[in-house]
């Protein structure tokens, strides 16, 4: 997806292209295979009455895909309630106030759904059915919702992402680095980008 | 349709300052339909960059809303200035960096936005280098 709502320019920066601000979910457009698009995905989600699951391993781009999808939901008139779970959060008590505001225009988005207990998942699904709203989740394994997308990070995807951040022909980072790190990190793109931050710092030319 | 152009300059093209010095500059907007314009913001701020969570603080901020712009000649340069604080000083570390910048944002109809930034150095803390094993 290309975001044409904002244009920007920045003067010469000491920035590391792999710093959080440049690689966090939403900063890099989600890269689909040639025969897929964000609009198709949003259409499939709508067909499934805004219920769906995005499945993939750690660091495979699930959160990045969610960030890219969120504007599509807004464009379709849906209000997103984004819940990001960390550190084994087993329930949604911390989000009770937010969940009390959902209605049939809402889509509850849960990033890290597999961390919820069986009971919390059941309660959330029941609530979403009662409110006739959407439920979109990411998970490491299938959780029984309509499958929206299965993450399959490849070397080519990783190279395309990195090439969007640095010049792989002339910069301090080369394609072979991406290939080596992706194998080392067993396909975890997020860890690869963290590693590339360090590698860039090691290799960048000293500042004058 | 021509895209609006936001021109942002620091006076004398300066790129480094010392704490307590006055930073000044100007900005102007060209090729912008007033009917499209919602607001202009100018800010002087610092932010951290690195592998982890990032921090940000705004030192100077000015906003011109639509009501103001109706009586403004946007192509006329508008000046800003602020006295820079004693800290934090710019720092180019390996794990974290502290960056200062002047940021101008043009808010347009239908959620469009144009952003211009000018980075500058505050103080002269030497850059760190990665230590290789």
Main β-sheet description of chain B: 6 strands, mixed
pLDDT < 50 runs, ≥5 residues of chain A: none
Beta-strand residue fraction of chain B: over 45%
- Structural class per helix/strand content of chain B? mainly beta
This entry's quaternary arrangement is heterodimer
Low-confidence stretches of chain B: none
**Total E-strand runs of chain B:** 9
Largest Cβ-defined interface: A-B, 23 and 28 residues
Which sequence of strands runs across the widest sheet of chain A? 3-4-5-2-6
Count of DSSP-assigned helices of chain B? 1
Could you explain the architecture of this structure?
The complex is a heterodimer of chains A (208) and B (133). Chain A has 208 residues and is α/β, with parallel strands linked by helices. Helix content of chain A is 38%, strand content 15%. Chain A has a five-stranded parallel β-sheet, with helices on both faces. The radius of gyration of chain A is 19 Å and the shape is elongated. Chain B is mainly β and 133 residues long. Chain B has a domain at 5-44 and 58-87 and 102-122: Immunoglobulin-like (Sandwich). Chain B has one helix and nine strands; from the N terminus they run βββββαββββ. In chain B, strands 2, 4, 5, 7, 8 and 9 form a six-stranded mixed β-sheet that branches. In chain B, strand 4 (37-50) and strand 5 (56-65) form a beta hairpin. In chain B, 21% of the residues are buried. The mean pLDDT of chain B is 89. The chains are: A alpha/beta (208), B mainly beta (133). Chains A and B meet through strand 1 and helix 8 of A and strand 4, strand 8 and strand 9 of B. Strand 1 of chain A pairs parallel with strand 9 (113-122) of chain B.
Short key terms for the protein model shown above:
heterodimer, A: 208 residues, alpha/beta, 5-stranded parallel sheet, B: 133 residues, mainly beta, Immunoglobulin-like, 6-stranded mixed sheet, 1 helix, 9 strands, 3% helix
């Amino acid at each position: 997806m290309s975001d044409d709502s904002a244009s920007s320019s920045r003067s010469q920066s000491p920035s590391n292209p792999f710093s959080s601000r440049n690689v966090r979910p939403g900063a890099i457009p989600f890269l689909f295979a040639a025969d897929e698009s964000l609009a198709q995905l949003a259409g499939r989600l709508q067909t499934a009455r805004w219920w769906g699951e995005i499945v993939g391993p750690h660091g495979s781009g699930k959160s990045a895909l969610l960030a890219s999808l969120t504007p599509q939901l807004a464009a379709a008139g849906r209000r997103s309630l984004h819940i990001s779970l960390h550190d084994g959060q087993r329930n949604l008590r911390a989000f009770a106030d937010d969940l009390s505001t959902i209605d049939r225009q809402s889509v509850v988005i849960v990033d890290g759904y597999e961390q919820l207990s069986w009971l919390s998942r059941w309660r959330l699904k029941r609530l979403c059915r009662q409110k006739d709203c959407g439920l979109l989740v990411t998970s490491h394994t299938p959780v029984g919702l309509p499958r929206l997308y299965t993450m399959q990070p490849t070397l080519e995807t990783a190279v395309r992402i990195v090439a969007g951040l640095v010049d792989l022909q002339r910069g301090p980072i080369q394609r072979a680095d991406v290939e080596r790190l992706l194998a080392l990190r067993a396909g975890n793109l997020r860890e690869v980008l963290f590693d590339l931050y360090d590698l860039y710092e090691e290799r960048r030319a000293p500042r004058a | 349709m021509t895209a609006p152009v936001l021109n942002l300059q620091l006076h004398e093209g300066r790129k480094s300052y010392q704490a307590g010095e006055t930073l000044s500059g100007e900005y102007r907007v060209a090729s912008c339909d007033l009917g499209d314009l919602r607001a202009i913001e100018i800010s002087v701020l610092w932010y951290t960059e690195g592998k982890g969570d990032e921090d940000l603080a705004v030192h100077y901020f000015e906003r011109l809303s639509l009501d103001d712009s109706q009586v403004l000649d946007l192509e006329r340069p508008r000046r800003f200035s602020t006295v820079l604080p004693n800290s934090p000083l710019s720092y180019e570390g390996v794990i974290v960096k502290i960056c200062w910048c002047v940021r101008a944002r043009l808010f347009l109809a239908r959620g469009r936005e144009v952003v211009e930034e000018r980075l500058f150095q505050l103080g002269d803390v030497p850059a760190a280098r990665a230590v290789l094993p």
